[in-house]
Amino acid sequence: MFKGSIVALVTPFKNGSIDKGSLKRLIDFHVENGTDGIVIAGTTGESATLTFSEHEDLIKMAVEFADKRIPIIAGTGANATHEAIALTKSAEKAGADGSLQIVPYYNKPTQEGIYQHFRAIAEETSIPLILYNIPSRTGVDMLPETFARLYADFPNIIGIKEATGNVSRVSDMISLTNPDVVILSGDDALTLPMMAVGAKGVISVANNLIPRDIAQMCRLAFDGKFDEARRIHDRYWNLFKILFIETNPIPVKTAAYLMGLIDDIEMRLPLYFMSSENEEKLKTVLKDYGLIR
Known about the structure:
The chain is 46% helix and 14% strand. By secondary structure, the chain is an alpha/beta fold. The strands form two sheets. It has an eight-stranded parallel β-barrel, surrounded by five helices. A two-stranded antiparallel sheet has the order 2-3. The longest helix is centred in the first third of the chain and has 15 residues, at 52-66. The chain is globular.
C-alpha cells in the first residue's frame, strides 16, 4: 500500500530536454531522505507539456534510477481514455509500481462518464491505480459516491489523491468504503488535518524541498503523536503557502533551482518564470528556513 510522504516530483529540463543527471540526483536525494514514494510525470512534473515519447521515457528513467529502492507512481492520466490506457500500459511494462490517474480534464464528463473512463483503464491494466480528484485543474469534481463505486468494482483501484480542499471528503469516502482505503492529501497545508481523520499520507509539493521533515510529520501522525506532528506542520506553514504564490510548479521548481537540487530553472511554456516580486518573497521564506543563504 502507498502511504506516508510521497513526493510530487518536479521534472528537470535543460536545453529543451529532460535533464537526466538532475533527475537521478533528485531520486537519490529522496531515497536518502526517507521519502516513501515518488510520483513522476504528475502535475508538478509538468506532464501536460511532455510529448508522448518524453512521458514514456521519463517514467522509464525514473524506474531505472530508483532501482526498486523507492516506489515509483507514474502519472499516466489523460483527458482521452485511450491515451490514458496507452500510457498506463507503458508504465506497467516499464516496471512502475503504481499509476496516478487524474480525473479527465477540459471535457467535463458526467459522473457516469468519469466512472466509465476509470473502468476502461482498470479493465485494461493490472497496475495499482490511485485516482486524482482536483476540480480546480480539471473543471469537474468526482463525487465520493463515484469513487466508492469504482473502489468497490475494481480491485486495482486502491485509492485517491484528494485535492478539493475539503477535509470532510476523507470521512465521506471512508464511510462509503472502509478504513483501509488509501486516501492521500493533495495539499501540503491539509496533510495533517486529513491524516487526523483517516488519510494515509500526502502526495506533496513541499517534499521536493524538505523531504525528511514531511516524512517525519507523516510518521508521527501514523503513530498518533499529533502534537509533535503539528509542530512540524506549524514550522513549515509559511513554506506551504509560498509554494502556491504562483501556479504550481513554478515556485517549487524555482526553489529547487535556488537550493541547487536541479541544474536549471527551465520550465515549458505556458509556464513561465516567477515575477521578480514573488521570487524575492520566495527567497525570503527559503532564507528564513535556512534552505538557501
